[in-house]
């Protein structure tokens, strides 16, 4: 396994005369930097899912309405997703370390506010501020990885990042269940947020000591017209997807989704106008002209949308359909977590000329996992050993997809564009997860709330001990959801076809070497 390297000669991190007296000080080891930034992203992504387990307790304790609970859960996701690309530009303009620390401090303080919130209104506001903190912090991670690591060390760092992203969603359910069930000192749901305070404080102290101080701010402007139009377009897309289902797809949600199309078109026109005037567009055209980034981001979108949507549906089936506790449902996904970790950390061992084919094959493997799980659980049972094997295959498919895709998407990006590319790459998976839960989750919930199909009733009748009608309907809904999710995974493989044609025999070897130049 290659050793991580730290290259102080990258132009944006070159020491200045003002910092010359500190050169004798021992430089932080890249592993320490990686540990800090991955710990921060794990905490931020964990918070997006851990709160779901606590909503029943919150409803009782705060006397919250259904709409308030929706905003408690969704307020974080909405502000987080809307700020990612802007957060990346702020990092380039004011320094990645500075903006990362600001985001981490904001997230930690907002977590404290969430834990002490006396009512639903205060909690909603604190959750929105939490999302702002995460939106400032997370985009800097790609840039810090790009500027700290090179070649295979960079690919390994991105693999660890992808592992953390995938595992945080699974671990969030287990951690949330444990904290709520423990009811520490009679605090109920509050430790779900308060646990972030000591963790965030420790990461802040470590980040101040370890993150490189010498990142020179970029001369790029903030591009306020681009920020306003993109934020508006993202909100028009994300808000109805997050809130629409619980409100039975009201007209305002449909109107927002329709309006999002011209809003994104307006953003493109604004960016072109900024570029013609000699300004610095929020998303430069040369970034989007990178075929590796476009194809890689498209495949990543389908992969993460399917993962999030099916994981949501599967969790709902386990808890609402089969009546399992949140902790047990979370532990059910242990083989999935193992598969993701294994794939993410071993894909570089595949011969370079086969790595693009490996990603496409992994998409097919994930599709097979989705279909297999749907068929296995269709009868309403627990699945047994076969379910564990299918989850492992699903996890391997995801691990051999997401990690190399991150490396692929960044392969043609120059260090000067690292911040802008990181904003795109952090936004794509986040939007994908929102779309996946909204689209695939809606398929599952609409079918699970209805009567079980005749096939499911017949299948459940043949199972010893029988299963309830609700379990049968839920199992049939999961089976029906698996098909479109599998199709989406296969579309991810198709997104790579242009690269398979244009890079035959090169694999990702060029990616690993690119970082060394």
From TrEMBL:
The chain crosses the membrane at residues 33-55, 67-87, 99-118, 124-145, 157-180, 192-212, 224-245, 251-270, 291-314, 326-347, 359-377. It holds the Pfam family MFS_1. Keywords: Antibiotic resistance, Membrane, Transmembrane, Transmembrane helix. Residues 33-504 form the Major facilitator superfamily (MFS) profile domain. Residues 1-27 are annotated as: Disordered. Gene3D superfamilies: Multidrug resistance protein D. SUPFAM superfamilies: MFS general substrate transporter (SSF103473). It is found in: Cell membrane. It is a multi-pass membrane protein. This is MFS transporter.
